[in-house]
Amino acid sequence: MVSVTLDALDRGLLQVLQLDGRAAFSGIARQLGVSERTVARRYRRLCTLGLRIVGQPVPLRLGMTRWLLRIHCTPDAAGTIAEALARRPDTSWISLASGGTELYCAVTARTPHDRDALLLDKLPRTPRLVSVSAHCLLRLFTGITSTWYASGLPFGRAQETDVLLPAAELHEPVGPLTLDATDRALLAALAKDGRAGLPELAAATSRSTSSVQRHLDRLRADGALGFSVDFDPQHLGYQMMTHLWLRVAPGELSTIGTTLAAHPEIAFAAATTGPHNLVASGVFRGSDDLYHYLDHRVGSLPGIQAIETAPILREVKRLTPAVA
Prior knowledge:
Blueprint: H1 8-19, H2 25-32, H3 36-48, E1 52-57, E2 65-73, H4 78-86, E3 91-97, E4 102-109, H5 112-122, E5 129-140, H6 160-164, H7 167-170, H8 181-192, H9 198-205, H10 209-221, E6 225-230, E7 240-248, H11 253-261, E8 266-272, E9 278-284, H12 287-298, E10 304-317
Antiparallel strand pairs: 1-6, 2-4, 2-5, 3-4, 3-10, 5-8, 7-9, 7-10, 8-9
Helix pairs in contact: 2-3, 9-10
């Protein structure tokens, strides 16, 4: 990876975008105390380094179910299986871990039939696949991501939970929101560029800018749409990404999940089914940083009965919203 230098202004811009991916450059400039032109220039530079702002539908709000798959396969088949899963529109995040024999795959199922077609039909017939365990994500404690790895920007997230987490994720589930053709076209356009302007969105949806604005406002207000920042954490000095599987006392699940969500190292945390009832994804500067986090930050929390760590070796697919 080419070495780059990011200063406090770059980091500040990234942090503001985490709070609102569509924040206007003028508003960002006021928050950071610089000119709008400077913000636009820094944003373009970060984009050359891989920065993406991605609009994401919230599966729970749209009546869809999220699953995390742990797939064990033979070493010679891991890459092939991962690439095949990456081509599916219902997968959003795929990584290789545990010596290249274990895959993690985030899947969003629109219907029980779609779920069963993958879990009960397609995967069992895949050559050189050893085992599959499917874990239903029950409650998210961080972000709006339906794609497993949300942002990887581990600096100061004190205010993020209230800003990023839609009402559909924070409170008891409500009835699924019905989407029309304009909504679906708008979500597809925002998945490519979450900061696309109203004229571009109007062209993509064949609607007027005023109609697009109304649909956009409705989707955000109803908790069906959020925005995530995708930026390689290695540019920020974080060289290790790790999955954490935790077994937590049932009565402590919400407390532990909320606590992890407030940790700047944690990009994602969710309650899940299975022998480990809480799963998280964290970013760390290195192995010593991870050890300190496990020993001093997590290990001291009451209610945690066991922790399993699985460092990520390679990301095959990330931050790709499933089709709404």
